[in-house]
Amino acid sequence: MTAVNPEYVSRPPLVVIEHLYKSYRRGNQRVPVLEDISLDIAEGEFLALMGPSGSGKTTLLNLIAGLDHPDSGVLTVGGVDLTQLSEGQLAAWRARHVGFIFQFYQLIPVLTAFENVELPLLLTPLSRRERREHVEVALKLVGLEDRSHHYPSQLSGGQQQRVAIARALVTDPTLISADEPTGDLDRTSAREVLDLLCRLNGEFGKTIILVTHDPEAASRAPRLIRLIKGNLIMDERNNAAGCRSPREPESSP
Ligand SMILES: Nc1ncnc2c1ncn2[C@@H]1O[C@H](COP(=O)(O)OP(=O)(O)O)[C@@H](O)[C@H]1O
Ligand SMILES: [Mg+2]
Question: Of 88, 148, 151, 155, which is the most exposed, with the fewest CB atoms less than 10 Å away?
Answer without folding.
Answer: 88
